[in-house]
Amino acid sequence: MTPKIVHINTVRGYRGGERQTELLIRGLASQNVRQALVARRGDMLARNVRALGVEVREVSGGRLSVIGATRDASLLHVHEGRSVYAAYARSLLSGTPYVITRRVNNPIRNHWFAHRAYARAAIVAAVAPQVAEIVRAYDANISVTVVHSGSSGLPVDAAVVEAIREEFAGKFLVGHVGALDNAQKGQEFIIEVARQLERSEPNLHFVLVGGGADEAMLKSMAAGLRNLTFMGFKNNVGDYLAAFDVFILPSNREGIGSILFDAMDQGLPVVASRVGGVQDIVHDGDNGLLIDPASPDQLREAILKLRDEPELRRAYGARGREIAKGFTSEVMWRKYLALYESVLGTRVERERP
């Protein structure tokens, strides 16, 4: 029988990890791989994947519901941490092998259950070498490989881009795309820099695309600022990236910061924190500028440097576009397909379309 890959991602909301899950499923679907997704009921990931014609099993997110939804899998691919334990239980019940993608660079929970669940995985795929190092430090016996995230190939509508530029006519647009999760993404530092520059640099404008749990708090912090706009969650992220002059990601922590691939794909110079796997993407002085986390002064100076040096912006943007060619979603899904086959010990035969 043709092997069936069952993906598990029961996170609420739609962030970088969910986008990467969808990109992988989309790529495998293009090869007619037999697969299904276990996702949280009613969430955006479930809707998007169902629109691809791929089977979706919507669950509450509890372990028992995930265990029940995975009984026919040949191999499980867990895309987020909380469902690792359900995959472990399913493996104990039926011997089903599972792969874990580790997307974050924070330590794994130091608990006997977590140790057993990670140790039983056929392999852990880390999105960056720095994340792989954390897994190895946790348990040297865990089999770990690196599979980088990929760019999304976001569509761009020139007319919409022009409309965005018109909305901020005459402004140098400093853009940020990310969930409004201040502890991770450090949006407070963007607000701090905007406040510092509001009077001295009236032509600079900060645009934040995304929603999240910290939206109310961050908007309160930015109250009264005329040089910063919260756009909320947008489906047409590609249009906003194409409208920006510079992209910034002042995160406190990142596994890899996959949105950087999309920014680079649009030819944007980037400013990003020197955290996690970001240094695999942003090469300081080559395609952008790296700053220390929680360093608004460094963020401010990097933005002003790129604003004042258009030739440098163009050079960084062109170099970034070249680097992004090595981090496409196709590169990613082909690596995962090879990984599945190595775990199963057989070719993942393609279904007939």
Q: Largest sheet, described in full?
A: 7 strands, parallel
Strand content: 15-25%
Low-confidence stretches: none
State the helicity in percent bands: 40-55%
Query: Mind telling me which CATH architecture of the largest domain this is?
Result: 3-Layer(aba) Sandwich
How many angstroms separate the termini? 16 Å
For the CA atoms, what is the radius of gyration? 21 Å
Determine the structural class based on helices, strands and strand pairing. Answer: alpha/beta
- DSSP helical segment count: 15
Count of domains = 2
Q: What is the mean pLDDT?
A: 96
Order of helices and strands: EHEHEHEHEHEHEHEHHEHEHEHEEHHH
Major sheet strand order:
3-2-1-4-5-6-7
**Could you give the count of β-strands?**
13
Q: What's the name of the CATH homologous superfamily of the largest domain?
A: Glycogen Phosphorylase B
Q: Which shape, going by the Cα principal axes?
A: elongated
> Oligomer, anyone?
single chain
What does this protein structure show overall?
Helix content is 42%, strand content 17%. The chain is of the alpha/beta class. The chain has two domains: 5-150 and 328-344, Rossmann fold (3-Layer(aba) Sandwich), CATH 3.40.50; 158-324, Glycogen Phosphorylase B (Rossmann fold, 3-Layer(aba) Sandwich). A seven-stranded parallel β-sheet has the order 3-2-1-4-5-6-7, with helices on both faces. It has a six-stranded parallel β-sheet with strand order 10-9-8-11-12-13, with helices on both faces. Helix 1 (16-30) packs across helix 15 (329-344). The radius of gyration is 21 Å and the shape is elongated. The model has no long low-confidence stretch (mean pLDDT 96).
